[in-house]
Amino acid sequence: MSGTRHRHVVDLADRRALAAWRPADPAVVAEAGRLKDAALLDFGMTESAVASWLYAKCRHQVASTAVDTAAVVASGDGSVLLVYNPDFFVALGLTGVKFVLFHEARHLVHRHLFVEPELRADPVFTMAAEVAINHVALVRLRRESLPLLHGEPVGVDPVAVHERYRADLAGQGLPALDYAEFVETDLGVYTELKRMKQPPVPVALCVHLARDVPADQESVDAVVSSVLLNSLLAARRGHGGAESELLDLMGRTDGTSEQATRRWGLLGAGALRGTTASTGVVDWWQRWLLDVLASRLRPGERLVYPRKRGAVLAALGHDPMLSRRGPEREKVLVIALDTSGSIPSSVVEWMTGLVGRVEGVRAHWLSFDGVVMPFRPGERVLGGGGTSFQNVVDYVEGRLEVAGEVFEEQADAVVVLTDGYAPPVTPAEPDKWIWLITEGGNDWPDAHHPPMACHRVRPVTRTATP
Ligand SMILES: [Zn+2]
């Protein structure tokens, strides 16, 4: 089988080789870069928070004729880059470029949510993905039809596939779903196509169908879960576009596959619908913390596109476009762990994972009992005797030296994970403080004046039953 695989002319993870490969006319490269930037700007402002975040994570965006269309390459070290054929983009025009970039972003989300090997191995599933993704693209981008390339439609037409499906089932004397029911969920399309006597075979219209684009599952999972989390946080703080996109995406995928449900559950996305995750791996306190953090870490949401330099830098294989994104300055988050009591390690792990996935946040980790000790995640935290919240407050507010140094940053939010047993404190800015009280602890901050955000936490048990 390996003998039949397409070999790329250059290493798709090598961006300098990419940019150098048969470079197109500089005017074409410049125009393609302009179209790409304009498309991403539209996504960011209105049309797709998910696509916008995804491409914001592609620090390198390279025009190269080494690909025929456009693809996101995950190079294995966790970084992702966008490669696009400049001639293809110019021939498509802006509306076509937007369609293709949205399609590509959605492919990665689809790949992250549906990982079952039996699905992946089935070419009908590949076709179903094309149908579902293009249906969503048409709806979200408010299009009547597929983009045209030299007068020909690009990609799989979901309406045409539905027509073939109806004809096929009529031939078998079986009832068929109407179009709206047929495309209702991503897996539903697959189920219905499987009922056909002759399911349609995917043809090479999408870069994924034609070629082996390097994109290991681990890198895809890391980037997509980060994209979904950031979109979720945007939705929770009132971005209507992000909310409608995520609710629609959840509606199409959550509950349709065990893996998809699990992944939504891990994100705590149920809070968006006011429901509890059926997996039991995400507890209410986690969703509560996501929500509180989102409000404390509200970013400036500025996307800056250096339009003039973008195309030139892309051609050189340098960071092309998003010179700055997200918050106007990084938000500072302090996480203080009380080592005098017993903090479940699963809670600490979950916090570490969460903080690592939130964009534009610089985290400072402290352990404390009677004294405050900064540490890095992964380091061993030693507990001593006594507990003082006042020392934590004094340190965070810059009054207490630790190892000869004072904390010089302005914290935007402080999360304290503790059993609560120590004299109560009143920080200078109580609304920045978030108290997570372990089981059996004392939740005094709840009744404190002024009140502070406070929630009881339970250890997260990954083996929890539904
Ligand atoms: Zn595709």
Automatic annotation (TrEMBL):
Protein's organism: Saccharothrix espanaensis (strain ATCC 51144 / DSM 44229 / JCM 9112 / NBRC 15066 / NRRL 15764)
Domain named Putative metallopeptidase: residues: 37-135
Pfam families, A to Z: DUF2201_N
Name of this chain's protein: Putative metallopeptidase domain-containing protein
Alphabetized InterPro entries for the sequence: Put_metallopeptidase_dom
